[in-house]
Amino acid sequence: MLKKVYAFISCSIIGTLGGLIGLGGAEFRLPVLIGLFKFPPLEAVILNKIMSLIVVISAFIFRAVSIPYSTVFSHWDIILNILAGSIAGAWIGADIAVKLRVKTFYRVISVMLIIIACILFISHNVEYSSFIMNTDKYIIIILGIISGVIIGLFAAILGVAGGELIIPVLILLFGIDIKLAGSLSLAISLPTMITGLIRYTKDDSFKIVYSHKSFILIMALGSILGAFLGGLLLGVVSEKILIPLLVVILLISSYKIWTHK
């Protein structure tokens, strides 16, 4: 029972932090699953991916009030462009993950968290790019596919939605407004995560989902509540304080996972 209480509280806090900066919080949830709840790395990633999928679906529904689906899918060409790479990357990433030794998996997760921390710190205040206006459309398409592969790899191996990678790509490469980029990111994340999850179902570690149904439900409720609270608190906490704090949390988590036994 106490474990479920901790799960609800921790996911509520993580969801709130994620809601404040427009992320699902999976980057912060993964270290909690490994460090606090002692799940092996592959099982933690699978649980994290389930949580990420639930949060993304919820966010996609909630955001439709502000940004209609018609607006999102009017950019179907950009969505398909990135998906062409991200779906392949997600399958490859999940395939790599199920074959990694436990110690190696910890190291891979640790390094990826550092990369996510750097991207979060550098790209959070990214602005519209004129790159798309001065580049051949076929080069844009190729770069979109390459970016998608990288996004898919990260999404599958960490169990994240990948918004911290997708949104900068949409803004810098395709010149999309940041608010619309958030919804397009969700549209890209959904099939990408589902692809990785399908690959994980072929591994015995996926049995963790069936044996922890109530735990997953509690985490999901906490994550959704946190994301809702984060949205309400948006603008209350200065990003100048919040972003560096979250980056530090990711770096500390990375170190702890690297040295985890």
Task: List SSEs in N-to-C order.
Answer: HHHHHHHHHHHH
Basic shape: globular
Radius of gyration: 17 Å
Secondary structure class reads mainly alpha
Unreliably modeled segments: none
Count up the helices: 12
The amount of helix comes to: over 70%
Please state the oligomeric state of the protein chains shown.
Answer: single chain
The fraction of residues assigned to DSSP E strands is: under 5%
Please describe the biggest sheet, giving its number of strands, its sense, and whether it closes into a barrel. Answer: none
The end-to-end span amounts to 26 Å
Total strand segments = 0
Number of discrete domains: 1
**Residue-averaged pLDDT:** 84
Structure description:
The protein has 261 residues and is an all-alpha fold. It has one domain (2-258). Helices cover 78% and strands 0% of the residues. Helix 3 packs antiparallel against helix 9 (178-200) and helix 7 packs antiparallel against helix 8. The longest helix is centred in the N-terminal third of the chain and has 23 residues, at 41-63. The model has no long low-confidence stretch (mean pLDDT 84).
Q: What is the gist of this entry?
A:
The protein has 261 residues and is mainly α. The protein has 12 helices and no strands.
Please give the structural blueprint:
Blueprint (H helix, E strand, L loop, with lengths): L1 H20 L4 H10 L5 H23 L5 H5 L2 H22 L4 H22 L13 H22 L4 H12 L3 H23 L6 H5 L1 H20 L6 H20 L3
Helix pairs in contact: 1-2, 1-11, 2-3, 2-12, 3-9, 3-11, 5-7, 5-9, 6-12, 7-8, 8-9
